[in-house]
């Protein structure tokens, strides 16, 4: 049956194998190629429809048996389709299509594109590489570019002999060609989707391989960086072995290369056997990087390798099921990283990451995890925190409710049953349900197919704990569409004893006494907010330091969203924070620092902002004083240093603590030497927040001269923090003059829009240069750039809404609506804060 979606290809023909031959001319920024497609027709056809865009088709031939026909060619750029028409109908059965074409190596970081780097001698080099997800294979060769049109791919690359060429599978043969070129042939891939194919050609180096149970693993990098790959190489080997054991199914390829690409629109991409990353994730020197930078490297490596099973071996049927691979890869990255470095306590950090999903899912403009996708632009809009972080959070919630061992049994069954195939959400629930004997589909239905999440109201009456639910929104709208109640799996801890409860939609728990100690979701596995009644809130506040760090984090995280929703006052939040005594939990300090930064940003004047900075100093200052400005000789917990750096940064930047600023200045000027990368990074942020135009120029110079990707990014991200109009104006210009890579330019503009005192100028710059920005930055970066508008001052609100009404971003329609709604929420917070400030 044909799909009614106009963006889906007709189903009469199924490709089975592609023979792809490409010859990139890197200097001319173009390529030529051919593709032989072996396919099967299930009915007679005279018109063959497949995907293609930005390619010049030079010839197309259709062969079936002894009949060879030249095909008439028609390209429809709007639908991204190639139509091949023949006089004699192709009959049912196998046939072959041969197409030759030419294309451009573009600078938009999609399809087959160029990436550049400068070597130690100052010479620029260009490589050709690919990014096909979600619908960009069609920019490189004509194909059925849909995830459920799986086929085998055999790649041949013609390249200059001095260049390295890699693809999805191992090299099988190379042949000398004329003029110093060579032909490189690769083994056929397993059955897989078009978006998972990749190749790279350029003056790059390959590390020796590590054998992981018969699978060779290499790192591909720019020349001269081999001394920085050991950390990532070790992590990749560990994660591949750990994931293979978890899934109980061997990796389905013949090798894995991890490629450090200088220009890359995403963080990384799980191409089968040829996994591409931003350099910052693979070039990691443990001696000069922070613990969060190292953790991020391991997590992303684990995420992409988890995709070899969730996504590559078993693939969603269509893009609306994107969460089936991305949510699980996000969940698995945390599991694998926890196994690699238990001392990093990554599941505690997972609760912090979950907040980014709450940030969006509490809006009226949220969407369901699984959402209708029709066009390529719709597919691009699915790559957000709802797919990744919310999806992973509800998976973790389910795993903890059904039990980790039974959950894994269900996952293993899912993998073996659907290997090399395509699935929908019910396939996964059926597998886990069979392993657990629980109605998983029923429990999880609203979590996947309904946007938003519940607020669990907890109160005590008549010897019972009463749990009710309602949808949680930051702004109430009388005309909002009604929602169904969730099945809420949660744990209630009464006097230290856990009791598992499924709210459907309410729940009651019998108590032995009305003054029992009660904690909802004590292990922080649930995806919901909790609002305790007055008596329970007071009880928790009185025993605050008797809670675990994770419990305090959940309490503060929930309380701040209740402040944003107008259910709690800022004063309530401040009073609770002042009750802390000797806090050491990184997640607690992370959520508190974020909350107080938001409050300070909502302040109408510098004096009001300074007042909140003083309150923050009263809360955080004693703990930094206890920890000191650098590691103690006997300090062996890596997370202690990250708490130190976080407090150092916020006390210097927000509270303007002079001792911190003076110390940061000494580090910045070189009068104090430190090997503490976290404190050095924090010192840079403090200088940027408190420094001058001269400091800005120095930070920019250090950004340009940085010899490691982590140091480069630390300086780059600090540039938007300067409270200097000329500095911010210069930064805006630099995002478009080539000083900052295209992959980062939009993100830097987004950070700069969030600058409290100069964001309005940046917004003006964006609106005046809109067309130039859109032509320059990757498509997926535009929505992220607009994230900064949520911090603009009140006077900009009508202008922002008017401009975005007139300038649609098709690939980020929902995220733009979400940024606009957050703008209104922050404006409401400013109004409430002004009222509270006048009262107190």
Provide tags for this entry.
Immunoglobulin-like, Neutral Protease, domain 2, 27 helices, six-stranded mixed β-sheet, alpha+beta, 5 domains
Structure description:
With 840 residues, the protein is of the alpha+beta class. The protein folds into five domains: 1-202, tricorn interacting facor f3 domain (Immunoglobulin-like, Sandwich), CATH 2.60.40.1730; 315-449, Neutral Protease, domain 2, CATH 1.10.390.10; 453-525, Immunoglobulin-like, CATH 2.60.40.1910; 543-690, no CATH class; 694-840, Zincin-like fold (Alpha Horseshoe). 41% of the residues lie in helices and 22% in strands. The protein is built from 27 helices and 30 strands. Helix 12 runs antiparallel to helix 13 (570-578). It is globular.
Overall mean pLDDT: 96
Distance between the termini: 67 Å
The rounded Rg comes to 28 Å
Number of helices: 27
* Helix/sheet category: alpha+beta
* Global geometry: globular
Strand portion? 15-25%
The CATH topology annotation of the largest domain reads as Immunoglobulin-like
Strand ordering within the main sheet: 5-4-8-2-1-11-14-13
Low-confidence stretches: none
Number of domains in the coordinates?
5
What is the quaternary state of this protein? single chain
The biggest beta sheet is recorded as: 8 strands, mixed
Task: Bin the helical content.
Answer: 40-55%
Which superfamily, in CATH terms, is the homologous superfamily of the largest domain?
tricorn interacting facor f3 domain
The CATH architecture of the largest domain: Sandwich
